[in-house]
Every structure is written in C-alpha cells, then in structure tokens.
Amino acid sequence: MAIAFWMVLLYTLLYEPIFGYIEFKKFKKKVKKDEKARISFYQNAIKGLWIPALVILLLTAVTPLTFEQIGLAPIAFNFQTLGTGLTAFAMGAVIVCAIAIVGLTIVCEYNSKLQKSLGKIKKEEMSKINYAELMPVSKQEKKVWTIVSLTAGITEEIIYRGFLIFAIGYLFQDLPIWAVLLFAALLFGLAHTYQGFSGVVRTSFVGLWLGIAYIGFGSLIPLMVLHASINYFGKVGGK
Fold this sequence. Notes:
single chain, mainly alpha, 8 helices
C-alpha cells in the first residue's frame, strides 16, 4: 500500500505543478486563435482530475484503505484533534460560505440585474489576474464549466484532503498533524501554479483552512459542496 501512496504523492508533486502549468501556458496562446480551445482544455482538466481520483477509489477496493479513511463517510464531528475553537471556526466558515455562495448563485440565476452587476464586477476582477482566459464565455463553455466545477469539487477534495492527509500521515508517521495539514495544503497550492505565485499562496491557505475543517467534520461532503459551488459561481454573470 505504501508504494501506491508514494505514486499518488509523486503525481501531485509533478503533474499539476509542472505539466499542468506547461499545458496552461500553451492554452493561453492557443485560445487567442482557436475558439474551441477553452472547451478542449476543460475536457482535459476533467480527465486529469478524475484519473487520480479513480485510482484512489480503486485503492480502497484492493488495499486495506477504506472510504472512511479518505473522508467518504457521514459527518462525525471531531473537536479533539485540533482544539474546539479553531476547528469550530473553520467548520463554521465552510458552512457560512457554502450557504452564501449557493444562495447567491440561485438568486443570480433568476435575477438578471444582479447577474449583470456581478458580471461587470467579475470582468473587472478578471482583468487583474493572469488566468482570465480560463473562465467560460459562451453558453457551451459555461455548460462544460459546470461539469468542471462539479469534478473539481469532488475530485480535488478526495485527492488533496481525504487521501493526501491520510497518506502523508501513513508514510511519515512521526509528523505531527499540523505538519501533515501544511504539507497537504502546500501540494494543493502547487496544483494551482497556473495562477502564479500569489495564487499558490492563496490556495495553500485555502487548503489549510479546508484541511482543518475536514478534520472537524470527519467528512469531505461539506467541503465538496463548498468547493463545487465556488467554482460554479465563477460562471455566473455575463450571460
């Protein structure tokens, strides 16, 4: 089982941080000339996320690894491992953010004025970042982006929270839980190298927050809801 764990760990260290970054650079050049490049990139991203996630799920079928150990289980609150205060704060932030984003997304779907206002704000914000080309524009792109959103919400939580936190703890048993969480959070951040240095730092902090919340919930389900809703919300506005 340790060999399989190392293989997935190396995948997270190499694939997205290096090959994913290279592919994104190619995409940025291609999308200026090919209007279908964005959908093609989305489709490749879906494959790139589901392959390791399915490998992890397969491991649960052929090794002693269980679904519960990678967070695919009902919520079972745990305030002892990291302390009540910090754990409750991280969990509460997940719940509040998820409710707010889901609610705002639903309202936007039926309120064209709010949708247009958010679209203008989004365009202004997108002009300041170096991965604006990634966001969907056409109706077809937005449909595929919905699948990307759901895929990332499910698979990234399985890979970077559920599996990696368990695997790192298993492979490096002398590491304290905080070191395990920081390591997993850094790998999550490196998976977003296409967003630049600031993006890596930002997503690493998000990864740490979600890691703390995961320990508290004892389940990936709340994190999947939040993660998918944040990604999906990126397409709201500008229809």
